[in-house]
Specification:
Jelly Rolls, Alkaline Phosphatase, subunit A, 15-stranded mixed beta sheet, four-stranded antiparallel beta sheet, 13 helices
């Protein structure tokens, strides 16, 4: 099976070269940042971590990060650019302020005011897309000036681009074929068996069930870890968790990783991410290669979907790579389109009351430690409240299913399916008392590792693929769909070229107090053991399951002969996948981020 993109012609899209004149608080020139080839930026007073990346200036404003121009109070930024005929300037505008403040962005051309754009600066502002039409005749050596009026501390102009005023519909550009648009939609914590094709029988996701018959459906897809950060860092970096090292909740993906969006950007892709924040945040290194990385900290699914459509509607003619991540099916579970937390809070109140009864019955004035309290709570939920959580979880699945179907129709209304492909997947599943376990992280049971993996869109056949699939395969898969060369460091195999069974690996760490763990799946045989090369070499495994006969992992075969041999067989490959290629960076989190992660259950 092989799908190939059409040859690509030059798009005629001129990106603004960032020669920026910045000024001090007094309004005098402070530095000249010229990122053209052969020039290096001089020392600046930018925030720690900001600076040149890939020939553009990277910065953060509120919950937005990416490349472009940052304006500070009392400063203006200027650049020179040759303006194409019939062109427009497009950018994403967001202002940061402790208190809501009405502001205006001013764009001047050769000293004359070209446009004024009103916006409101505020803490965690959502931002807006702006299009400014330029003179129809074009202009050589034009001087564009940007400044703002108002009380914002900082204003970000992300991904400023001069492109065709009317690039034409997707799939039918005025200059001919282009590379396909690519969208990855990741529903965090979405179990594979939410869908019928993966064994679900509750009918919670009829729309995704239907879409799963319209494209490639990988029926044996596995996550590289049982929690968010390692899995999504793998998806974006093309490296296994122990290779990239972002495996603990105070570590981030190294900037030395070469990410999927970085590679696609080299080939002219417009790259963007819309996430629900949490671990899918700039602090954890997942913003690498995205010209605009937007975090939706209130986790409202409607806002996330609308931001994705707004990104697509700000079309400048370049092909798109858009990554969308949502916590819609992640605890705290919210019901209905209004995302009502009331039912969740009612169950939580009952859990708290029952936990108090257990403490008193045990003769304890208080729990001996936070760890003891947590373990008692999880044991209680697994035995008495798992069905309540499962019921609320399925309500989140129903809402995601219905609104994702509308999103897919919105994409089709924008001609996406004429020359675009979409991946629907997840990063891990969720436990509801199976094996005495709840939530995710920790031990590598199938309810946490099995994920959906669907590929839909232009030129994609309707077919079920039974070979083992893995999130580490996605960078090579999307590179093939885009018709670009994959990064040599990327692991995995393009899912379009799967032709045989292979072993896949998953890892977890002490996030859920089980120690570092490894699971290996070879065909339908699975082993689980400590993350130890010595244990593999000696053939020592903790658990072994024949999933063909025992898909729910009820019959642990222990150190059966085939499990011992399987461990030894895959020792060398496991050693390769466990050898760090990068050193993960440490992360210092502010109180807002700590509280956000606590609300998500971390």
């Amino acid at each position: 099976m092989s799908l190939r993109s059409q040859p690509v012609r030059a798009l005629g899209v001129a990106l603004l070269a960032l020669g920026l004149e910045a000024c001090s608080d007094e309004g005098e020139p402070r530095r000249w940042i010229h990122l053209a080839e052969g020039f290096e930026p001089t020392a600046s007073e930018a925030r720690e971590g900001e600076g040149p990346r890939n020939g553009r200036w990277w910065f953060q404003v509120g919950l937005h990060s990416g490349e472009g121009i940052v304006l500070e109070q009392g400063c203006r930024e200027e650049l020179q650019s040759n303006l194409l005929p019939d062109a427009s300037l497009r950018l994403f505008l967001v202002g940061e302020s402790d208190e809501p403040s009405p502001c205006e962005l001013k764009v001047l051309l050769d000293g004359n005011e070209l446009s004024r754009v009103p916006f409101e600066a505020r803490r965690h502002a959502r931002g807006q897309w702006v299009q400014v039409d330029l003179p129809r005749e074009g202009r050589s050596g034009a001087r564009l000036t940007f400044e703002f009026e108002g009380q914002a501390q900082r204003v970000g102009l992300f991904d400023p681009t001069v492109g065709p005023r009317a690039p034409g519909p997707r799939g039918a550009r005025t200059w001919g074929p282009t590379r396909p648009d690519l969208v990855v939609f990741l529903a965090d914590t979405f179990r594979a068996d939410n869908l019928t094709v993966y064994g679900g029988d509750h009918g919670a996701a009829p729309e995704l069930d239907r879409l799963g018959t319209q494209g490639l459906c990988f029926t044996d897809a596995w996550a590289p870890s049982s929690w968010t950060l390692p899995s999504q860092a793998t998806l974006l970096s093309g490296l296994h968790p122990l290779q990239h090292g972002a495996v603990k909740n105070r570590l981030s993906l190294s900037p030395r990783a070469t990410s999927l969006p970085e590679v696609l950007a080299r080939y002219g892709y417009r790259t963007g991410a819309i996430t629900d924040s949490g671990f899918v945040a700039a602090e954890f290194g997942l913003e690498q290669g995205f010209a605009l990385f937007q975090e939706n900290r209130d986790r409202d699914f409607g806002h996330t979907l609308q931001a994705a459509l707004d990104f697509l509607d700000a079309d400048d003619g370049r092909p798109v790579f858009l990554f969308i991540q949502t916590y819609r099916t992640h605890a705290p579970y919210r019901t209905g389109e209004r995302e009502d937390r009331g039912p969740w809070e009612e169950v939580e109140a009952r859990i708290v009351a029952a936990l108090e009864e257990r403490r008193i019955a045990a003769g304890l004035d208080e729990w001996e430690s936070p760890l003891q309290a947590l373990e008692a709570r999880e044991a209680l939920v697994a035995t008495e409240f798992a069905d309540d959580h499962r019921r609320l979880y399925l309500e989140t699945v129903k809402d995601l299913d219905a609104r994702f179907a509308r999103f897919w129709r919105d994409l089709q209304a924008r001609d996406f399916d004429r020359n675009g492909q979409l991946v629907f997947t997840s990063d891990h599943g969720e436990a509801f008392g199976e094996h005495g376990d709840v939530k995710h992280g920790g031990e590598l049971w199938e309810e946490k590792l099995r994920i959906p993996l669907l590929l839909l869109g232009s030129g994609i056949p309707s077919q079920q693929v039974e070979w083992n699939a893995f999130l580490v395969d996605l960078p090579r898969t999307l590179a093939q769909l885009a018709g670009v060369a994959p990064e040599p460091s990327w692991q995995g195999t393009s899912l379009l070229e799967l032709a045989k069974e292979r072993a896949v690996f998953s890892y977890s760490n002490e996030l859920r107090r089980v120690g570092e763990r490894m699971a290996i799946l070879d065909g339908a045989r699975k082993i689980m053991l400590p993350c130890s090369l010595e244990a593999l070499e000696q053939g020592h495994v903790d658990r072994a399951f024949d999933l063909a006969r025992d898909p729910d992992e009820r019959n642990d075969l222990g150190n059966v002969d085939w499990a011992t041999e399987m461990a030894r067989t895959w020792h060398d490959l496991a050693e390769q996948l466990a050898t760090p290629r990068l050193e993960a960076d440490g992360v210092e989190l502010d109180q807002d981020r700590v509280q956000e992660l606590k609300d998500l259950g971390y």
